[in-house]
Design goal:
The chain is an alpha+beta fold and 101 residues long. Helix content is 28%, strand content 35%. It is built from 3 helices and 6 strands, in the order αβαβαββββ. Strand 4 and strand 5 form a beta hairpin. The longest helix is centred in the middle third of the chain and has 12 residues. The two termini are 30 Å apart.
Length: 101
């Protein structure tokens, strides 16, 4: 596969996942959690995080999250499936979402 286009890298990451678990993982394991495109690959995610946040990525793990079934009265619906990426950063590096990009 050739080089990944800059336009694709800007679209791969949708949002950071801010939760108790992701905060704990950032502190202990130096991992950051992102919501990514469903068709994104590990190589694309790692390259996107490295170029957007100017950090060094040592590993990427992906997880497909199944949408929950919800109901309101008799009507049942389903939330969309989505993909989550756990990105491990090089020791000593950090991404601070509180201060902005």
């Amino acid at each position: 596969m050739g080089a990944i286009s800059q336009e694709r890298l800007l679209k791969v990451i949708l949002a950071p996942v801010i939760s108790e678990k992701s905060t704990r993982m950032a502190d202990k394991l130096n991992q950051v959690v992102f919501r990514v495109l469903p068709d994104a690959t590990k190589q694309e995610i790692g390259a996107a995080v490295a170029s957007l946040f100017k950090v060094e990525v040592t590993g990427v793990q992906v997880l497909n999250v199944k949408g929950k079934v919800k109901r309101s009265g008799r009507v049942t619906g389903r939330r969309d499936n989505w993909k989550k990426a756990y990105v491990t950063l090089k020791p000593g590096q950090d991404i601070d979402f509180a201060s902005g990009l």
